[in-house]
Design brief:
The protein has about 400 residues and is of the alpha/beta class. It folds into three domains: about 5-165, P-loop containing nucleotide triphosphate hydrolases (Rossmann fold), CATH 3.40.50.300; about 175-265, Rossmann fold, CATH 3.40.50.11420; about 270-380, Rossmann fold. It is built from 14 helices and 14 strands. The chain has helices spanning about 25-30, 75-85, 105-115, 155-165, 200-210, 225-230, 245-250, 260-265, 270-280, 305-320, 350-365, 370-380, 380-385, 395, and strands at about 10-20, 50-55, 60-65, 95-100, 120-125, 140-145, 180-185, 215-220, 235-240, 255-260, 290-295, 325, 340-345, 370. The strands form three sheets. It has a six-stranded mixed beta sheet, with helices on both faces. Helix 11 (about 350-365) links the parallel strand 13 and strand 14 (about 370).
Length: about 400
């Protein structure tokens, strides 16, 4: 996968925040070398977060996010401020843009407190330094820049490079050795995107290839034949969650078994928490409300997994009269009356945003799990689906 084809969820998200007319949009344009944002002397020109996936040296593939001013006024302004702060849910590194001729304001300090609360690395960029008699030198996470004359723009990009951590996360590579065979089970039904594989499948195949292992891809009704044809026992079978039960019945016990959804939960660092949430399915009661949440929006099919299959499986498995609510895309509904959240694999959400959703659930003491773990729990194969991760199986027994 070339850098230009890196999915937005896997790119470093850099958010620009600050008051109106601090020069956020001008600084975005100066750093990117493109006219990504509209620039005007009129306050409040940026009314919604503006996202752009691009290459930014020395960082590589990134998503640049220009946000509305945090000091906007009126009812409409309050909505814009809310949107700006919501962008923190998916921001990996924040740049607080401050008018150097004015200095830090109350709103700026409040935003710094939010960065710290969300553990978001941040840089304070004092813009308009060309209007100062003398601009101080950069120190720690503070730098004086000018979007107007380009002062310290390259230095700011280099500072961003130092703040960005190397991503050593692997989908499955660390579980394999060179020459291992991995069988991937990919159903092709009405809900499958035409002419392509979904992102978790693509990422898994690439990880396998990078490790010198061998991937064999088949549909669920071809699995038994594929296993019988191989002259070497596969190290692992990875399946789409929808056919977990059928695949588990075919795969011998001495072959590791898991799902793309479980691998994605591990990849994004949420697997232990989501695993504990799966155990809460057995404790659901009549009248409990379950939120089915998805990170992307897509055309619903008649047998859609989120709105049809999982509610049906949960109702049948628990034998309870449950209520269901649904959210998709950037919306993550109010959790005040929710007994359990069942989330998709989150492949279209970056690690920060998925982590933010998990944290929001925990703050409200609402258990959260994902599709793969929930389906494994309901099919009685949760322990088996964690066979590649021996250290996590003890959580099931707690």
């Amino acid at each position: 996968m070339g850098l230009n084809n890196v999915a937005s969820a896997e790119r470093l998200h850099i958010g620009f925040f600050g008051k109106r007319n601090a020069g956020k949009s001008s600084l975005v344009n100066a750093i990117t070398g493109q006219q990504l944002s509209v620039v005007s002397d009129v306050k409040g020109t940026t009314t919604d977060p503006v996202k752009k996936a691009m290459e930014l040296l020395p960082l590589g593939p990134v998503v640049v996010v220009d946000t509305p001013g945090i000091d906007d006024e009126g009812d409409l302004g309050a909505l814009r401020v809310e949107k700006a702060k919501k962008a923190l849910d998916y921001t990996d590194i924040a740049i607080l843009v401050v008018d150097a001729t004015v200095g830090l304001s109350r709103e700026d300090n409040e935003l710094i407190a939010e960065f710290q609360a969300k553990k978001t690395p941040f840089i304070i960029a004092y813009n308009k330094s060309d209007l100062l008699k003398e601009a101080p030198t950069a120190k720690d996470n503070v730098i004086y820049v000018s979007a107007a004359d380009g002062h310290n723009i390259n230095e700011l990009k280099e500072m961003l490079g130092r703040f960005s951590a190397n991503n050593e996360r692997k989908v499955v590579l660390d579980l394999l050795q060179k020459g291992d065979i991995v069988v991937l089970v990919v159903p092709i039904d009405k809900a499958a995107p035409k002419g392509r594989l979904i992102m978790p499948q693509q990422m898994t195949i690439r990880d396998i290839l990078d490790g010198g292992a061998v991937s064999v891809v088949c549909k669920e009704d071809e699995l038994a034949s594929v296993l019988s044809c191989l002259n070497k026992k596969p190290k692992m079978v990875i399946t789409d969650s929808q056919v977990f039960g059928k695949v588990a019945a075919i795969v011998p016990e001495d072959i590791l078994l898991t799902s793309f959804s479980i691998l994605m939960a591990r990849y994004k660092g949420n697997l232990p928490t989501l695993l504990k949430g799966a155990a809460k399915i057995d404790k659901l009661r009549d009248g409990d409300k379950v939120l089915i949440a998805e990170g992307c929006t897509h055309h619903r099919q008649c047998e859609d997994i989120g709105t049809v299959k999982i509610p049906g499986w949960l109702t049948k498995y628990t034998g309870k009269k449950l209520e269901f609510k649904f959210s998709s895309g950037t919306e993550f509904s109010d959790l005040s009356d929710v007994a359990l959240v069942v989330h998709c694999g989150g492949c279209m959400l970056n690690e920060k945003e998925m982590g933010s959703r998990v944290a929001k659930s925990l703050e409200r003491e609402v258990p959260i799990t994902n599709y793969g773990l929930a389906i494994a729990q309901m099919h009685g194969i949760l322990k088996r689906s964690l066979s590649p991760f021996e250290d996590l199986q003890k959580i099931i027994l707690q």
